[in-house]
Write a sequence for this structure.
């Protein structure tokens, strides 16, 4: 059994803060600062260029990919770290379209995170071969699958409501029609159990700075099913994805397996922080995390609904259909979130009216949920969010 | 006048090491560790998600872009940080091809760094509209320009020999024929004076971990001439390049000016290290750096040629045609570099026979050059590099 009292002690959490925003940026693992400092001082400072060999910088994206693979039901050498999620989605999409040959439609839902849709639009415009991005409501996905569709690209857990697709079922339905699947795991990795092999997923990508706690701008990851990886021709054919990067050949030749999804020089400082963050996951049973997340989420929903009738549940009521977050509709959610942050309860707001709270058992316990729910009720019921200052916008909101 | 005794004290250099590899990875600025630690502890740790506003994380790529712009003769809001150089080259190429309308040829030289060529190959294959990458020898570039060429993509300073193109002249010749220019500044930024405005460059990109000393995997940068930037349609249309990223619209709409070349979440730890590295450049006159680099390079060439006749100069003899590195041909260069590294002189090797040494006045002085040249002569002349152990290959060489 995962000891959640122990895991909570592995994070630095600011005094008097209840942090319900781990779906946006995970908190600081207590070992991350010293890990990064060590990397800077002893590796960059002392080894200099030799760090690429002697400190394993060069193989770090694959090493950490293998550690993530264990968490996500993927075989070794099927996941690699690097770049941002947007870039990894572009790579997956370009490869998937290529595999799909003559089919022209990319299907997604309106609940997908916009950058996935934007990257698809940019790729479609670059390819300029009459591909189309078709968006339907999330509940219409299954009925919309047909043999004209090249690629189904979905985010597993909706960033606004936490609504979760049935990855295994939808993948099977899609594949029965010859459709290639891409799953965005931004709100899944470290949040809910994922088994890429059991679900027979074709491509997946995700980020590490949310539930995996790698810090702001931590590298993204990409998964390619072993059955595809040697058949794909990378669109972003960077030198570190070359079969022999240090041969400096003039022609690109893709590297073995997932190595070909590397592009340029990996961000070694961010990877050091990610490594510290992944250490925490070594002793953790994801089934325990899921059970605890559901227990805390049910408690949170019940407290908010009891004490705060103005907030209307936006997440699925059925726990099995929800990721590791709980969201509520509230017309003045933006101002209410600002007022909450000022009182030490950090959640966030998503347009048009969503108050979003991540439930992360690694560093949140029952007391946090009870206290957080109480402060939310106090703030919403008091109407203090009506003050002008809470209605001013930030560059990042 | 730049005080180079002072600038040397701003770097951590390992004991008994003469570091002649700053064209591969710059050394550690002494303030970088504490800067990154502060960012981790006080910003990530204490501000958590609020760091995006309160610690300026969101605007950091543009803020640091403006600082780089001052060094590179570019106006404010024309340079932005992020991703890797390979990705930035892809963005520049996709935009340039789009501007070039019906022309199909991308011209480059065989001295370009391979990732630029690979990214062009990947883009050409993705566009699938009969674009072609044509490579000529570097001295044939001017004679190869014609009105069928869409884009001229060159690396300003050759990564192997340090041979430098005349950026201003070639840009003008190309533009007279309606060709769009892309300059890779990997071995130029922080190495030689660059004036993007005076040279009327269309696009440029570069990395920060070489002569700018931002640490392994530091973010890349891209420049787009203000006359083009509002006409380009990003191929990598990520959410942070959107006009209103937090509106979460379903359709991409490019952001203002260079903001549209942002893609995903920026690497905040790497940006903190870059910020510490850029502080050093604030008080530096690039003309002084160039003069000192030439003085040290001439001294180095003269000492090596005098004491080490087996090494044949691979760099241009004329200082004005050379970047901030000096290279020599030596058949057993790989083994000789290995033997040198063991003796504290760090240079590197590039196939087929190039021994490469960066001359970086910010942290190298006359004593280092004299001592380094002496050890190189001792190692090469003694034949100690014939030992088997120096002929074994590393993953990264």
């Amino acid at each position: 059994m995962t000891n959640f009292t122990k895991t909570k002690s592995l994070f630095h959490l600011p005094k008097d803060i209840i942090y319900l925003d781990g779906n946006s940026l995970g908190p600081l693992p207590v070992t991350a600062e010293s890990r990064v400092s060590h990397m800077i001082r002893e590796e960059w400072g002392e080894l200099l260029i030799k760090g690429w060999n002697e400190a394993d910088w060069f193989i770090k994206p694959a090493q950490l990919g293998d550690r993530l693979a264990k968490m996500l039901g993927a075989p070794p050498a099927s996941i690699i770290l690097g770049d941002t999620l947007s870039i990894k989605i572009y790579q997956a999409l370009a490869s998937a379209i290529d595999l799909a040959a003559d089919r022209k439609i990319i299907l997604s839902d309106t609940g997908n995170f916009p950058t996935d849709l934007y990257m698809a639009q940019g790729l479609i415009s670059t390819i300029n071969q009459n591909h189309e991005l078709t968006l339907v409501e999330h509940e219409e996905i299954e009925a919309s699958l047909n043999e004209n569709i090249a690629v189904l690209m979905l985010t597993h857990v909706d960033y606004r409501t936490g609504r979760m697709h049935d990855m295994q079922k939808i993948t099977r339905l899609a594949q029965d029609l010859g459709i290639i699947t891409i799953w965005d795991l931004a709100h899944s990795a470290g949040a809910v159990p994922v088994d890429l092999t059991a679900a027979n997923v074709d491509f997946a990508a995700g980020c590490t700075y949310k539930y995996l706690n790698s810090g702001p701008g931590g590298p993204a990851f990409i998964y390619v099913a072993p059955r595809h990886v040697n058949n794909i021709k990378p669109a972003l054919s960077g030198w570190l994805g070359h079969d022999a990067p240090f041969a400096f050949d003039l022609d690109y030749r893709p590297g073995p397996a997932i190595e070909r999804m590397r592009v340029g020089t990996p961000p070694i400082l961010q990877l050091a922080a990610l490594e510290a963050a992944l250490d925490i996951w070594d002793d953790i049973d994801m089934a325990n995390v899921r059970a605890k997340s559901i227990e805390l989420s049910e408690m949170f929903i019940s407290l908010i609904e009891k004490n705060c009738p103005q907030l209307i549940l936006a997440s699925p009521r059925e726990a099995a259909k929800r990721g590791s977050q709980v969201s509520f509709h509230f017309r003045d959610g933006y101002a209410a979130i600002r007022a909450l942050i000022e009182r030490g309860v950090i959640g966030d707001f998503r347009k048009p009216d969503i108050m979003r709270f991540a439930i992360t058992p690694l560093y949140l316990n029952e007391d946090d949920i009870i206290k957080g729910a109480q402060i939310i009720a106090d703030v919403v019921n008091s109407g203090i969010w009506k003050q002008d200052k809470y209605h001013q916008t930030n560059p990042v909101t």
